[in-house]
């Protein structure tokens, strides 16, 4: 085991990732074989991190292990050098299951031996930009640059997407010049949200959001959702009317005054995630838009899994998203009333005490209970004995005499649990189930619109049945589609597994999509609400790409995150024609498009630091930044610098530049301006990528070895000695900044007085490769 662990770390896996891989026997065996094959070509020390990453990715994604040797050798021989080629290789072997594989066809399908030069990329982009030149000049930076990227990538299938993107950015900048204030103004969106049904496109019918430009409140107000009016529950399709319905509705209207009442009812056994954000916005938003009220009700009927930290975190997240509950209630507030209603249900002949075991009641083909027709008086006595603790757990349950929409017969209303409750202590040893509790708590709180996700549609008939069986006010249940994101998991059980195995640190790890994690990463609550509004409230389930959420984040942060300069991989630069003690203050606008919103100053001295990537010792065609032959401008400083001397260490690595500077007013306009820092603060920066390699990590057809085998080994990169300008010195936890030319960042709670820690929230621009 120790030897295998060493083998896995030798290819660049972290010790934690290696240990996690060892827990998956199939993946561990495949990866070990792949490494052994590669070492057979290169020797024990010949498998570098880049090759190791490809081997790991291949081993975790390959379904037909008989191709393992062939693909491992292809990677080892550097025929397969990129993720793009690996994806093509996996697809090729999947579609060619028969032996032997044609090496010629494989090489052609995977781009083996094809080398794309910078000149080819420059020429291809130049051709595309020329083709669209007139429209670019007309629309400027409002033009869809993705079209340019797409055409260039079509011409050069195996080129690095990031290199193409950089070339597009540079050539567009050269054509159009820097962005003006007019370029920075937001362009209104006018597309209409549609859903595909069969052979034609049909608008989503509950409400049409984001592309219409309406706010969430506008979409939820009045009759936009075609919901029933308060007191007119009986007009809703499927609503059951009894002889007492109208009198109960009359009493309900007298109590509520016709006010809309909703509730958000989470279980306090986990942290809220992005799907809950939609539920919060819908429940609280619908009430707010129509001058109603919304309760935050904890469904605390399972004492084994409830913890105080979850109660607190749920309320914090609701308030963080901008909503204030009318009241915070608990299902446990009603335990006595729920018990009395259960006794009444037995008396009415609608419930009975059953002794079938838990395993017998699982699934949909449950055998009929032999105790279904026992006398009412007998069930009353036995239910009282259940309450007094005279039965063992699992020895007796209270079941309701009804058939649910999904065919499940006689759902359980009460079960025995000898576990102290978070709020009621040892007062109760019988606890109501969701099927029993939910509709009755809605009735007790006089909820008008019980909004829930689509999977609860199968429980709607039992919802109406129970209220009517007890002759109590019956609200109306409305369902909407769940919100799901690709490249993540949100199940409580699976997140706990990620925490327990050390893949993530806790529920608020910024790679997760829990709301606490998104807050820690720096996502503004307004952006999450805007995202929920864009997705809309649809009947069908919605599966959305993370980049749509990230786009909402950029929209908000572009307007709210002040600018600062930070250098992640510093290169020291000494300006030799400035005096050793030279120091001046440079004024930097917090928001370049609107300097009236504030300005901060940063020092400018003889020694500055720039990004290593902003200097190249050998000039390459199309490279616009600093080289020994090419000067570059310094953002905000008013200077242009030119290289005089390149200083290297004993290994030949460039460690310092000596340059001279001159005023940008007198110098020839440089091709580019770069950011810099002087007398900076040392900080830690954490860069995040997707946690999973596949879109649907829980889908066995996509990830046959389970979601834990699909972890992206490069999902977090920690830079411990980045440099940031002193303007951020007084920042508080969760304060957000745009580090110019780098991305949006937020201050992490791990920060100390001695060292700030920043999380990258999102990059400045969407990566086309993630779409």
TrEMBL record:
Enzyme Commission code(s) on record: 6.1.1.18
Primary enzyme class: ligase
Localisation per UniProt entry: Cytoplasm, Cytosol
Domain Glutamyl/glutaminyl-tRNA synthetase class Ib catalytic: 259-558
Domain spans labelled tRNA synthetases class I (E and Q) anti-codon binding: 673-748
SUPFAM superfamilies reported in the protein's UniProt record: Nucleotidylyl transferase, Ribosomal protein L25-like
Catalysis: reaction(s): tRNA(Gln) + L-glutamine + ATP = L-glutaminyl-tRNA(Gln) + AMP + diphosphate
GO cellular component: aminoacyl-tRNA synthetase multienzyme complex; cytosol
A Pfam family annotated for this UniProt entry: tRNA-synt_1c_C2
Family to which this protein belongs: Belongs to the class-I aminoacyl-tRNA synthetase family.
Role, per record: Glutamine--tRNA ligase. Plays a critical role in brain development.
Protein name in the entry: Glutamine--tRNA ligase
Source organism of the structure: Stegastes partitus (bicolor damselfish)
Organism ancestry: Eukaryota, Metazoa, Chordata, Craniata, Vertebrata
């Amino acid at each position: 085991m120790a030897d295998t662990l060493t083998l896995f770390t030798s290819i660049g896996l972290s010790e934690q990732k290696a240990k996690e891989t060892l827990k998956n026997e199939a993946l561990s065996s495949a990866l070990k074989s792949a490494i052994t094959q590669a070492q057979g070509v290169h020797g024990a020390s010949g498998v570098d991190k880049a090759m190791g990453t490809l081997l790991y990715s291949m081993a975790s994604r390959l379904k037909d292990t008989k191709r393992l040797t062939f693909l491992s050798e292809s990677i080892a021989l550097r025929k397969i050098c990129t993720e793009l080629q690996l994806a093509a290789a996996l697809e090729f072997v999947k579609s060619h299951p028969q032996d032997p594989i044609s090496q010629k066809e494989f090489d052609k399908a995977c781009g083996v031996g094809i080398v794309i030069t910078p000149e080819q990329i420059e020429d291809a982009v130049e051709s595309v930009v020329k083709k669209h030149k007139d429209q670019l000049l007309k629309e400027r930076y409002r033009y869809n640059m993705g079209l340019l990227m797409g055409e260039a990538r079509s011409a050069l299938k195996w080129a690095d997407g990031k290199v193409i993107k950089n070339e597009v950015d540079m050539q567009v900048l050269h054509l159009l010049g820097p962005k003006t204030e007019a370029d920075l103004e937001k362009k209104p969106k006018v597309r209409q949200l549609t859903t595909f049904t069969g052979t034609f496109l049909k608008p989503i019918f509950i409400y049409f959001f984001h592309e219409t430009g309406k706010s969430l409140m506008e979409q939820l107000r009045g009759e936009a959702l075609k919901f029933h009016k308060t007191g007119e529950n009986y007009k809703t399709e499927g609503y059951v009317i009894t002889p007492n319905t109208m009198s109960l509705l009359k009493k309900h209207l007298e109590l509520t005054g016709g006010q809309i009442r909703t509730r958000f009812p989470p279980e306090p056994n986990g942290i809220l995630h992005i799907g809950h954000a939609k539920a919060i916005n819908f429940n609280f938003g619908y009430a707010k838009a129509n001058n109603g009220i919304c309760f935050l009700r904890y469904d605390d009927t399972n004492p084994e899994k409830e913890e105080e930290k979850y109660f607190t975190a749920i309320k914090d997240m609701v308030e963080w998203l901008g909503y204030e509950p009318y009241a915070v209630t608990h299902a446990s507030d009603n335990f006595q009333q729920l018990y009395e209603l259960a006794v009444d249900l037995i008396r009415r002949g609608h419930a009975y005490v059953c002794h079938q075991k838990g395993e017998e009641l699982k699934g949909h083909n449950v055998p009929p209970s032999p105790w279904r027709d026992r006398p009412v008086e007998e069930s009353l006595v036995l239910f009282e004995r259940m309450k007094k603790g005279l039965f063992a757990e699992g020895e007796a349950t209270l079941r309701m005499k009804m058939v649910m929409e999904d065919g499940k017969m006689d759902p359980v209303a009460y079960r025995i649990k000898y576990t102290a409750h978070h709020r009621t202590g040892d007062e109760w040893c019988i606890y109501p189930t969701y099927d029993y509790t939910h509709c009755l708590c809605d009735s007790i709180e006089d909820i008008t619109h019980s909004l829930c996700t689509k999977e609860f549609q199968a429980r709607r008939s039992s919802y109406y049945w129970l209220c009517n069986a007890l002759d109590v006010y019956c609200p109306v249940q409305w369902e909407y589609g769940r919100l799901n994101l690709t490249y993540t998991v949100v199940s409580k059980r699976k997140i706990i597994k990620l925490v327990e195995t050390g893949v993530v640190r806790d529920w608020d790890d910024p790679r997760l999509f829990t709301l606490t994690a998104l807050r820690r990463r720096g996502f503004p609550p307004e952006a999450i609400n805007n995202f929920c509004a864009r997705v809309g409230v649809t009947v069908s389930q919605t599966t959305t790409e993370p980049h749509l959420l990230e786009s909402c984040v950029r929209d908000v942060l572009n307007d709210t995150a002040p600018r600062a300069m930070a250098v992640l991989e510093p290169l020291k630069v000494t300006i030799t024609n400035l005096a050793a003690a030279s120091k001046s203050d440079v004024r930097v606008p917090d928001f370049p498009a609107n300097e009236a919103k504030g300005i901060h100053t940063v020092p400018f001295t003889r020694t500055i630091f720039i990004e290593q990537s902003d200097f190249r010792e050998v000039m390459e065609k199309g490279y616009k930044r600093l080289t020994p032959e090419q000067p570059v401008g310094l953002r905000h400083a008013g200077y242009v610098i030119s290289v005089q001397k390149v200083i290297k260490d004993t290994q030949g690595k460039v460690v310092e530049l000596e340059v001279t500077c001159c005023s940008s007013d007198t110098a020839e306009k440089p091709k580019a301006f770069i950011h810099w820092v002087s007398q900076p603060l040392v900080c830690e920066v954490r860069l995040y990528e997707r946690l999973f390699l596949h879109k649907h990590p829980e889908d066995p057809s996509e990830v046959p070895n389970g979601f834990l085998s699909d972890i992206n080994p490069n999902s977090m990169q920690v830079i411990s000695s980045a440099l940031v300008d002193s303007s951020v010195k007084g920042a508080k936890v969760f304060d957000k900044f745009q580090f110019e030319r780098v991305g949006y960042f937020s201050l992490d709670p791990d920060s100390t007085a001695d060292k700030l820690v920043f999380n990258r929230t999102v990059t400045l621009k969407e990566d086309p490769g993630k779409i």
